[in-house]
Amino acid sequence: MDRVALARWLSLALVPLGVWLSVDGSNAGAPLGVPVVLFGLAGFGLSDRLFDPDAASPRSLVDARAADLFQLGAALLVFAFLAVVSGRFESTSAVIASLRSPGASALVAVVAGALLGGGVAVLTFRWDRLRAVSQTVRFRAIGGTATFGTYLALLVAAPSSAFLYAAVYALSRLIALFRLPPPSQW
């Protein structure tokens, strides 16, 4: 199965998942259902443009930024989905109260979020050898495992630190996204 077909199937799988989350009745899952459905439909519609390696025209700056933002949105949806499924979500006020006296888990969350979010992009941009390796499926699988494994470990150990990790991850990815040239121009 090629990348475009796989992306379409995975995007379509998000639609019934989002519908199920919306009608499930859980307080945390219902608001998550609509973005999951919309994300699945957008992914299906953009599959050719985002995942076709043999695209005839070179990707523009806007296409590259849109693909990077799409990936960041997918990661944030996975973070939210893992929190809902595990039942380890907390209210915003509880997270803020627990972060007033941060412990070691908060430090781990900030460092890991910065490294796995924008740090990997900066290192990949700076080192030619790492840039070549980063195109392999194995590298991307290890990166995804590290990103979501760290979040899941923090979610189990300290849910407020997992929220902090997700926030730092997103912020560092956004900073790297808009401060570095898009990966298609490296």
From TrEMBL:
Residue spans crossing the bilayer: 28-46, 67-86, 106-125
Signal peptide: none
Keyword Cytoplasm set for record: no
Protein keywords: Membrane, Transmembrane, Transmembrane helix
Annotated DUF8100 domain residues: 62-177
Name listed for the protein in its UniProt record: DUF8100 domain-containing protein
Organism from which the protein derives: Halorubrum ruber
